[in-house]
Records
---
Amino acid sequence: MQNMTLPTVHMNGTSRKDLQEGYSNAALELENFIEAWGRIEFNARDYYVTDGAWSRASDERDAMSAKLRDVREYLQAIQDHLYA
């Protein structure tokens, strides 16, 4: 991610170990959520009774999936920084 503000490890701040652990745990939980998200039954038969609902639902789901990818990239960038 470009122009991202990364944590600075220093004597008065949170330890590198605690930061690494926190972001690693969050990333793992996010991956678990993304897997569960992908297993949700999502198809047109649940939307076709309302005109245009399937298209709107698909667009909304795609937008949510993009946000999940953004969070994944954010966590990965911080982890890369902390493990460098």
Note: The chain has two helices and no strands.
---
Amino acid sequence: MTINQLFKQKPSKELVCELLTIYGLDGFDDDKQFNRNNLLNIHLIDNLNIFKTKLEEYYLPCKRKIYLENLTVKKSITILRQIIKLFDHVVKSNEKYIKGEKIIVYQIIPLNTLKKSPNTNNKCIISFD
């Protein structure tokens, strides 16, 4: 049985926490922001190449070839997005300008913080004259 058309089975939470440490995060509750330069400084691609043997058993073979071969920072963000989505978290990205340079900043947040419940207490009256 497949999960999200990407995985054969759901990875364990311990494995995902181990993956998050490769990204420089302490776990699902870590709200630290990171960018491409941060990931390059912690040698993410080298560490992820070592770790990818553990991930290969969870990905479907056709998807494994797409996402786990020739790893780049962009692919590594995609892998992170795919895996933490299974645990009701998302990678939120924002553009920031630092010293005139546009940088995309990423952050892991729980999915339930994105969904806004409709507030029925707000009433509005519109009148046209």
Note: The chain has one domain: 13-113.
---
Amino acid sequence: MGSVRNPGHIAGQDFLNAIDRCGLPLKLDTPTQGDGNCWVRAVEQQLERPEMEEQLNQRSRQLLSIRKPKRYLALKKSIAEFATTSQHPTIRRAKERLF
């Protein structure tokens, strides 16, 4: 396990345990920058994995065709647009809990 000096390692091991426990097809490549935008950064990292390419829909493929420096903001904008316009019941319930 990690130490007080290396809390990312502890969190990383917790993530690996959760991924294994849930049987998710996710991998931890590099630590995700913890700046409040870590979820979007982690999604971007997973979308870039070679084994994910065949599973991506057209919209995700378009996002990956955007140059790397601008891709993060495009992905963040796409997620925000989905969250604000979606009528999916799960998203609607989540919004109702917030307001």
Note: The helical segments are 7-22, 38-47, 58-65, 68-85, 89-98.
